[in-house]
Amino acid sequence: MQHTNLNQYDKLSKVFHWITAIAVAIAFVLGPGDFGRLLHNGIDPGTRIDIVWHESLGVTIFTLTLLRLVWATVRPVAPRPQMTAWMRFLSQLVHLVLWVLLFALPITALLALGTEGHPLTLLGGFRINELPFIANAHLSGLADWGDVHKFLGDVIMWLAGIHALAAVYHHVKLKDGVLKSMLP
User: Fold this and answer.
1) Model confidence over 81-97: pLDDT tens digits?
2) Does 4 fall in a domain?
3) Within 13 Å, how many C-alpha atoms sit on residue 98's CB side?
4) Model's pTM, two decimal places?
5) Segments forming the whole domain that contains residue 20
6) What pLDDT, on a 0 to 100 scale, did the predictor assign at position 1?
7) For residue 1, is it within any domain?
8) What is the SS3 string spanning 138-178?
9) d(CA 61, CA 14)
10) Please, what's the b/e burial string for 35-73 (b: 16 or more CB within 10 A of its CB; e: otherwise)?
11) Do residues 50 and 175 lie in contact, with contact meaning Cβ atoms separated by under 8 Å?
12) Number of DSSP helices (H) and strands (E) in the chain, helices first
């Protein structure tokens, strides 16, 4: 029988958390702020390694998030450190918004690519030149999905930073084991 530490997340949850966090940060850094302008000026995204990596990481993040969601439904019990009701509420709210953003960012990226007629370019030379199922979808005309994607990318980075600062606060000030529960 395997011993489960109720003060620690299981190893797979930790792996999902940290790989996702690192992938999001790298994708954010590599996300070309001038993406739309580049493509409108005829630049092939397949020639820009930053775009290829950004889009590949986006697909990876979406896949990891799906797997992580499945794992969260069957994994061992997650730690529930003692905290005040308002802290628990904020913690749950931040986690929920982060989950939503982890799904929304890749979806808005695909909406942006599909509605603007740009290809999806991934590592290994994989490329989908057209996404007609997106271009013809009802959602396609509801927003400038490139702007939405960029805004949500900023939001996830700010929220992840606040999430990290809260973990450090719990570690340094409250000494309640919240940060340690997710460390390797």
Assistant:
1) 888 999 999 999 999 99
2) no
3) 22
4) 0.88
5) 11-182
6) 40
7) no
8) HHHHCCCHHHHHHHHHHHHHHHHHHHHHHHHHHHHHHCCCC
9) 15
10) bbebbeeeeebeebeebbbbbbbbbbbbebbeebeeeee
11) no
12) 6, 2
